[in-house]
Amino acid sequence: MTAAPHLLDVEGLTISYQVKGRWLPAVRDFRLQLRRGQILGLVGESGSGKSTIALALLRYLSGNGRVEGGGTLRFAGDDLLRKSDAELRQIWAERIKFVPQNAGAALNPSIKIGAQVTEALRAASDIDRGEAQARMMRVFHDVRLVDPERVAQRYPHELSGGMQQRVTIALALICNPELLIMDEPTTGLDVTTEAAILDRLRNLIAEREAGVLYITHNLGVVAQLCQRVIVLYAGEIMEEATALDLFQRPKHPYTQGLISSVPQLGQSKRAAQLQAIAGNPPSLTRTPGGCVFADRCPAVIERCREQKPPLEKLGDGSLIRCFRWEETISMPPVPRPPQGRKGRKKPLPLNGGGVWGGGVESALLHAKNLSKLFPVARSLRELLARVEPAPIRAVDGVDLHVRAGQTLGLVGESGSGKTTLARLIIGLEERDGGSLELLGMDVRNSVRDRSQDVLSKIQMVFQNPQNSLNPYVTAGQAIRRPLIKLRGMAPAAAEAEALALLGRVNLRPEYAERYPDELSGGEKQRVAIARAFASDPDLIICDEPVSALDVSVQSAVLNLLAQLQDEGGAAYLFISHDLSVVGYLADRIAVMYLGQLAEVGDARQLFQPPYHPYTEALVSAIPIPDPRHSTERILLSDDLPSAQNLPSGCRFHTRCPRKIGEICEREEPPWRAGDGGHRIRCHIPLAELTTMQRRLTLADEA
Amino acid sequence: MRSVRVSRVYAAFKRSAGAQLRHPQSAVGTLAVAFFLVLALFGAQLAPHPNPNDQSHAARLPPTLDIGALHLGEHPFGTDRLGRDVYSRVILGAGSIFRIAGLGTLISVLAGSALGLFMGYQGGWIDEVIGRVIDALLAIPALLLALVLVGIVRNLDFEAGSWQAALADNVILLVISLLYIPIVARVARSATLDIRTREFVEAAEVRGESKAYIIFREILPSVVPSLVVEASLRFSYAIFLVASLGFLGFGARPPSPDWGLMVNENRGGFYQLTPWALEFPALAIAVLVIAVNLMSDGIRRALQKGA
Amino acid sequence: MLLFLRRRFLFFFFTYLLSSLTIFFLLRILPGDPARVIAGGREATAEQVAEIRAELGLNAPLPAQYISWVGNFLGGNWGDTIAFRGAQNYDLIIERSLNSARLAAVALLMSVPLSLVLGVIAGLFENKLPDILISLLTLSVVSLPEFVTGLFLINIVALRWGSSDLAQSLGWWFPSSSAVRADASFGEMLPALWLPAFAATLVMLAYISRLTRAGVIEELKRDYVRTAALKGIPWRTVIWRHVLRNALLPTITVIAISISWLISGLVVIEYVFGFPGLGSLLITAIERRDLLLAQAIAMVTVTVILFANLFADIAYALLNPRVELA
Questions:
Q1: Scanning every residue of chain B, which has its alpha carbon at the shortest distance from the alpha carbon of A20?
Q2: Taking the alpha carbons of B76, B81, B83, B85 in that order, is the dihedral positive or negative?
Q3: Which of A275, A309, A266, A274 is nearest to A290 (CA)?
């Protein structure tokens, strides 16, 4: 053995999948080198082949996938491709561990956590039960699982998502592996949970000297965690560099596009449009002959389409696959100003001019004391004692107003009640209390009871474009229907108007004839947006409209929403778990926690002190896509209290890092008003909050 | 709008027909079902002796069929103890089993789907109550319910031409519909429940569409594949049930050329004398059941994976 | 757990109530007069019919009739048998039920392990040769009507092959008829049982093995299988400890549901083999227009099925941690 080989050394790896009898190369000419103690990031959008690579490195491809000959895959100097099944099992047991994305599914639902974790240990070494138990407790402690003894006695479904993910990490760490392959281990978790897990992970990896391949689509996570980064696109490496280099001086046009298409925290639509990458990634069956990125590249030249650029190794050890990188690196994308205001179609109502001008009376939508309880089935004991069980208070006395032509952003963790609130407003869920007024009209409870007029004024864009379009209805039909139904148009007129709407969402007229399965995710969401705009509504409720989309597609949809609002003047209630996205699009932001609002304010105010302590934690938890940036994170415990059994006093007191004392547990906090409608619900006076909270660096201020 | 939607559903079926042919076993099954369908439709023209009760032949003649020589002969399947041509009777028997099983399936699929779609979309206590009634009905074994029903109706005396008499004549059809409507409704309901929470249904609600529009225009197209799978399954069970009832003597009455009945009439002591009079109708039942099973398995395979 | 049990028991009683109503009203809502059916149909005189009406209490209002009928059923007072003069429905049904239960027990003992094994093999080898063979088998021979397989077993296996020298020398016994003495013990009955039980086995085989196969295939695709395999434990252990545990749990319910199928199948099989069970009794009862006997048989059957489902659901809930027992 030569001196200190790389822990993982991959060269010329091509992985194919069998699709309808043909073998199609999903990953082509992949390479990587990983040293012990190094964290290597692998960034790519969905379909780029990053999970395929993870499974191929483990030699755990499914039956319809295979590694093509010609490449090498060396682990600590040994050729993994030559290992027998028994040898592989040995390696899996002791040396290479995998942390999967969806922890809930990755744990066996009918075996207790303890048994599942010790099983891994006993596969690796011959140790007795007591020893295994002790080591499990140690590693549970390492990953900061609260109450490890009880966790071991639990079944997976009894744990929260964050705890499940900690268990899978414990499962990987317990054997002290040399190599960790982590496939999006924090995707699907709330930011606060994600921040806590990433924080733990960084320390654990540093302690153990293991090599880590960290796969993710989230640039922020990469910037905060990894030393080197590989950027993958459509199965090929576009660029590899140190994290510092990659984020400061991205060479490849794709990397540049990717980085600038993520809204930075505090960046607003008023300052600049997001840099969007046009188009969609190529499909596996139709990979272009030349550069795979050519069709979407702003710097494309003839040569890019004819010839595949080679993966060039530069002097500083970085890799680049582009003919023109030397030119493009010197012309980083300039933030474009928002497209010229074309003049609003509708005049804004009185007092609508200034962002903060006008009172509540001028609001387009005015919700007062909205609440929604979900009943819980009674247990036998409650039945005998004739006690009503406490209902789940999904939304509990929320006051909200949306001003005409503006965007109100609504943020909160999953389980905070933000989606229920939206559904109450649109009428898909019936409210149990409170009132709702639209343009001074009283709005009935359920969609079924609402007048045509009200229906046409509030529309909705749903979260999942996969589900929000009927698979048996073409895009044109989907857009025509509300025109006929809500605006009473004749079919011919509706046809023409539908094409015009398609144009407004930047889709060509021929898209009218396409069915949803012939559209990409971003295109589907555009059709859904056109459909929502068809009835010419005053308010559109957007429930996580971009969270199911890839980063490069997401920014184009956000730009479109901003532009449509500019042209048509519809107001948005924009719901998202992603503060940067909300911050980009919203004029005002409301932060929701356990069914109540914690803070409401102007989008700019929200990103500076004084914050509500919960907002502060949310803001600090966001992974910033800049390796130089390091904030001290305010880490919250994983678990949101149950909405059935709400904490007394301030709902946030169980997790609040700034809890001042008994008063937080005893009394509901008052609303404290700041400048220009900024309101925070906290026992701590605003001035005190301001001095406590450091100013977070904001992008795009000035 | 409708036509486009229909063509969309049709395109899905054309794809599935292709998938059907790729699996040799389901292709064979489908072809065999088609063959029996031809017998059922044109039996009277195809049978050498179109009168099933033609007793003019010698009794107990052995089969003249010679598969090796591709030779049918005078009485390919022989004659039974009464001198009836078994070959003709088997051909003529295809009609009744197809008519009853097919019609029964059609009725139960149409009624069951409508009921299930309504239950699934409506939800609430109506769904709960109907659902429980269906559960209760399904707890009674199908054959038992069928036997009791047929046994009672059989023994009642009705005026000829009255609606009761018409009902009594079609009691098997009635039984099949009664037994299978709840089962189909249950399938349609769960398929509907799956679709109704999709966001495109909520988008329709937000547009203020009527219940009927949402059920039939938004939900139904997505439910059709599972209904087709269920229909093919119901058809195979219906054939099974009709044959079993015929065999037990609760289906067609003698002397009609019902396959199950023919098997029953020629079993036991007669078997030693004319085994062919039992074996050929039994074989016909076996081949038809297997063919329908293979076909419906192919349909299930083609429609259930994607959708 | 209590909440679950309460809901399950409520459901049990509700279903029982509805099924009994169905069975009861089946005789009432149909056009025509049950008394006339019992009296002999078309040939019965008006006096005979009137006499039977009075005897059966058919002149009382319907709800009262239902209540007294249920009361009689629960009290074991199931009336006189018309089909066999001088017998009591209760004694007759209990005796025949025991015979059927033995047959069903043998059938279950044969079919459940066999179909689980076939289903698991088919699932593990999805779309490979073993799966294709098993699926062809279950789609063809196994799913033929019981009377076809039953007659085949009698006429080909028992009559032809059973009398061959080989079978004789092996000492195997292939009864062509399963008529047994009423007082025969289980041991004595066993030789007569196995052929009809085999026919009944086939009925359930297709159903259980198919659902088992689907369960195994579904579980194999789950992420936890990958987690288990990447622990470095042998594939065999992954299957036994992880996959089968989850895949076979639902079969508890499946087996309970298929008991309803088994009972339907037994009616035909008992008839074909001449076995003195509940199913052949039912056919006799209907042929001889003994509606009270038929009604009582239906009630007994439904009782058995509902209890089987109840026990299966409770067992499933106890074994499956995912069912919320709170």
A1: B19
A2: negative
A3: A309
B206 and A470 in contact by Cβ < 8 A? no
- % of chain A exceeding 70 in pLDDT: 91
Which residues of chain C are at the A interface, by a Cβ-Cβ cutoff of 8 Å? 2-3, 6, 222-224, 226-234, 241-242, 245-246, 249, 320-322, 326
Residues 6+ apart with CB under 8 A from B171: B149, B150, B153, B154
Partner-chain contact A380 C223, CB within 8 Å:
no
Residue-wise pLDDT tens digits, A645-668: 888 999 999 989 888 889 999 999
Q: What is the ipTM of this complex?
A: 0.84
User: Using the beta-carbon criterion (under 8 Å), do C287 and B144 form an inter-chain contact?
Assistant: no
Q: Distance, in angstroms, between A362 CA and closest chain C CA?
A: 49
Chains A–C, number of C-beta pairs less than 8 Å apart: 80
Q: Between chains, do B205 and A459 touch, taking CB under 8 Å as contact?
A: no
Q: Which amino acid is at A468?
A: S
Annotate B31-56 with b (16+ C-beta within 10 A) or e (fewer): ebbeebeebbeebeeebebeebebee
Q: Express each pLDDT in A272-312 by its tens digit.
A: 788 888 888 888 777 778 899 998 888 889 999 989 999 99
**Contact call for A155 and C322, based on CB within 8 A:** yes
Nearest CA in chain C to A92: C232
Any C CB within 8 A of B292 CB? no
A440 falls in which pLDDT band (50, 70, 90)?
Answer: confident
The secondary structure of chain C, three-state, reads CHHHHHHHHHHHHHHHHHHHHHHHHHHHHCCCCHHHHHHCHHHCCHHHHHHHHHHHCCCCCHHHHHHHHHHHHHCCCCCECCCCCCCEHHHHHHHHHHHHHHHHHHHHHHHHHHHHHHHHHHHHCCCCHHHHHHHHHHHCHHHCCHHHHHHHHHHHHHHHHCCCHHHHHHCCCCCCCCCCCCCCCHHHHHHHHHHHHHHHHHHHHHHHHHHHHHHHHHHHCCHHHHHHHCCCCCHHHHHHHHHHHHHHCCHHHHHHHHHHHHHHHHHHHHHHHCCCCHHHHHHHHHHCCCHHHHHHHHHHHHHHHHHHHHHHHHHHHHHCCCCCCC
Q: Is the pLDDT of residue C187 over 70?
A: no
Scanning every residue of chain C, which has its alpha carbon at the shortest distance from the alpha carbon of A96?
A: C230
Q: With cut-offs at 50, 70 and 90, classify the pLDDT of residue A119.
A: very high
Residues of B in contact with A471 (CB under 8 A): 221-222
B255 upstream amide cis, omega within 30 of 0: yes
Percentage of chain B exceeding pLDDT 70: 89
Look at residue A702 and tell me whether its pLDDT is greater than 50. no
Q: Is the pLDDT of residue B205 over 90?
A: yes
Q: Which chain A residues are closer than 8 Å to C218 by Cβ?
A: none
Pair of tokens at residue A194:
């994600």
Q: What would the mean pLDDT of C111-139 be, rounded to a whole number? A: 92
Q: Which of C145, C265, C305 is facing B289, going by the closest CB pair?
A: C145
Of A468, A472, A477, the CB nearest to B203: A468
B129 in C contact zone (CB under 8 Å): no
Give the nearest partner residue to C230 out of A92, A107, A110, using CB atoms: A92
Question: Average pLDDT, whole number, for chain A?
Answer: 87
Residue of B nearest to A540 (CA): B206
Averaged pLDDT, A613-632: 85
Please, which residues bridge with residue C78 across strands? none
Confidence at A4, pLDDT banded by 50, 70, 90: low
In terms of pLDDT, which residue wins out, C85 or A468?
A468
Tell me if chain A has a CB within 8 Å of the CB of B159: no
List, for residues B135-148, the tens digit of each pLDDT value: 888 888 888 888 88
